């Protein structure tokens, strides 16, 4: 049966992969004192599939495969898209409120590849679509976790790939052999590479004929000897759960992913020089992945909303009109995202290979809204919480009887709320909105993850039928 257990998934990561953390080579990511936090976080989706409380969301019976990860269900209609959004939202909620895309981002890429490769094959007689299906089949059967490395390091942003000072600023083909290709370059910000089985590599932008060798897409095992995975740093377990309730257990991870002359066999290639399709593939993946983004965000909005309402209650300010208006602002923030998810699923279009693709306009509006207003939502929570979010004593002071009695007396707001509970909520708000780890990370994730603000604007403008409105105004004014 294609359903790995949490333990089997963790064991699959002990495969000699080349991971570097804070200047040192990591021999085993699963036992590393810091990376193991992330491994555990990423492995939770495997736990969920065996958890009777949520199994019906995470597991789906698929033709040919029987019970499999619901992430691999290829959407064919609005209901499938809504079920996928629910699955992604449930994943964040299950994973202590932090996103987990161990199987979401890979399937986003596979769905985009299925649609685009079937078109490339029709035009060029290539066999990419079969390659994608074969790879998909393996991923389902072995219940694999995938990272997607799309964002190139990009060098000078004003130049195209072939114009860069360093020809390796975008991943490209350096050798073509009868049995495959050799690729060189590096992708940046790749989420999850330390703890996945496969890396799917996609182009990051449109290409011209001169960029032909940069129009490349393929899959490679994360333990390929020429793939170097350089990790970002994150919070350590030493911080303690009381002080950093989110960061000590719920954290995603990114890498600089280097392809140091990596050989890719023919059957793992999805695009190799068909430059006219690089932009379409980049955009379609981005659309899928932004649908994932708007789907994983609501539980983070729920956390901001819940924390704001709870601390307002503990501080005795819930009844004041300005507080209610701020709570409503947070309701608007999160429910606008949920409304975009529904609209995007219902107003989908069917693409080549018979795949139902979310409506781009609602996806991009939702993604822009969540990114542009995240800091403001966090500010609202900080506003209601007060300055103790960053000035309160630590767990150790609460454990020391000499200081505990003062903390319990002076940092209490009401007789029915122990100081410890108030501090718990304040620490949670700090971690969520003001710590370097989860808070700072979520700010930048909102702005840049799944594409910058500007990328959402350009995509919305491109997809929206502005002419329809121009025609309407002309008709009202009797202009031919
Ligand atoms: C937490 C996190 C997780 C991520 N996970 C992944 C992942 O798993 N896989 C993956 O492939 N990527 C991932 N990304 C990458 C993400 O998609 C990029 O960060 C985003 O597309 C912005 O690219 P950049 O970081 O290179 O910034 P830049 O592209 O350098 O953007 C910086 C600024 O420059 C502007 N700019 C850039 N180029 C131009 C231009 N030509 N003309 C005008 N203005 C320009 C942008 O609009 C922006 O304002 C992740 C990012 C983050 C922060």
From TrEMBL:
Q: Which domain of life is it from?
A: Archaea
- What Enzyme Commission number(s) apply to this enzyme? 4.2.1.120
Protein keywords? FAD, Flavoprotein, Lyase, Oxidoreductase
InterPro entries, A to Z: Acyl-CoA_Oxase/DH_mid-dom_sf (IPR046373), AcylCo_DH-like_C (IPR036250), AcylCoA_DH/oxidase_NM_dom_sf (IPR009100), HpaB/PvcC/4-BUDH (IPR004925), HpaB/PvcC/4-BUDH_C (IPR024719), HpaB/PvcC/4-BUDH_N (IPR024674)
The record places domain HpaB/PvcC/4-BUDH N-terminal at 5-271
> Keyword Lyase: yes or no?
yes
Molecular function GO terms recorded: 4-hydroxybutanoyl-CoA dehydratase activity; oxidoreductase activity, acting on the CH-CH group of donors
HpaB/PvcC/4-BUDH C-terminal domain: which residues?
A: 278-477
Q: Which enzyme class?
A: lyase
Q: Which PANTHER family match?
A: 4-HYDROXYPHENYLACETATE 3-MONOOXYGENASE-RELATED (PTHR36117:SF3)
Protein's recorded name: Putative 4-hydroxybutyryl-CoA dehydratase
What species is this protein from? Candidatus Nitrosocaldus cavascurensis
């Amino acid at each position: 049966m294609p359903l790995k257990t949490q333990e089997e998934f963790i064991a699959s990561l002990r495969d000699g992969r080349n991971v570097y953390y804070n200047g040192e080579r990591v021999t085993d990511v699963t036992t590393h004192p810091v990376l193991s936090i992330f491994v555990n976080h990423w492995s939770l989706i495997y736990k969920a599939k065996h958890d009777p409380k949520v199994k019906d969301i995470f597991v789906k019976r698929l033709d040919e495969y029987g019970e499999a990860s619901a992430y691999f269900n290829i959407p064919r209609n609005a209901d499938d898209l809504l079920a996928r959004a629910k699955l992604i939202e449930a994943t964040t909620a299950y994973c202590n409120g932090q996103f987990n895309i161990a199987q979401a981002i890979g399937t986003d890429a596979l769905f985009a590849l299925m649609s685009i490769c079937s078109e490339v094959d029709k035009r060029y007689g290539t066999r990419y679509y079969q390659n994608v299906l074969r790879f998909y089949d393996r991923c389902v059967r072995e219940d694999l976790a995938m990272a997607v490395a799309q964002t190139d390091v990009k060098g000078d942003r004003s130049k195209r790939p072939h114009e860069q000072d360093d020809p390796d600023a975008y991943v490209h083909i350096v050798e073509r052999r009868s049995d495959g290709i050799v690729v060189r370059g590096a992708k940046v910000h790749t989420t999850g590479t330390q703890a996945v089985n496969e890396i799917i590599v996609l182009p990051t932008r449109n290409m011209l004929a001169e960029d032909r060798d940069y129009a490349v897409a393929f899959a490679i095992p994360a333990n390929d000897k020429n793939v170097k995975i350089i990790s970002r740093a994150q919070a350590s377990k030493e911080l303690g759960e009381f002080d950093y309730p989110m960061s000590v257990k719920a954290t995603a991870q990114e890498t600089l992913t280097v392809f140091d002359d990596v050989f890719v066999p023919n059957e793992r290639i999805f695009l190799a020089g068909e430059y006219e399709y690089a932009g379409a593939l980049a955009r379609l993946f981005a659309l899928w992945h932004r649908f994932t983004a708007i789907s994983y965000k609501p539980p983070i909005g729920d956390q901001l909303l819940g924390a704001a309402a709870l601390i307002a209650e503990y501080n005795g300010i819930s009844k004041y009109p300005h507080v209610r208006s701020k709570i409503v602002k947070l309701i608007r923030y999160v429910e606008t995202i949920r409304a975009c998810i529904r609209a995007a699923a219902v107003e989908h279009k069917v693409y080549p290979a018979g795949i139902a693709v979310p409506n781009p306009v609602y996806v991009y509006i939702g993604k822009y809204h969540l990114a542009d207003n995240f800091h403001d939502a966090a500010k609202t929570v900080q506003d209601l919480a007060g300055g103790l979010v960053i000035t309160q004593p630590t767990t150790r002071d609460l454990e020391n009887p000499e200081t505990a009695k003062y903390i319990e007396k002076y940092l209490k707001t009401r007789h029915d709320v122990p100081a410890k509970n108030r501090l718990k909520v304040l620490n949670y708000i700090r971690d969520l909105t003001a710590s370097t780890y989860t808070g700072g990370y979520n700010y930048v994730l909102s702005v840049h993850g799944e594409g910058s603000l500007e990328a959402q604007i350009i995509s919305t403008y491109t997809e929206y039928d502005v002419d329809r409105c121009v025609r309407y105004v002309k008709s009202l004014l009797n202009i031919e």
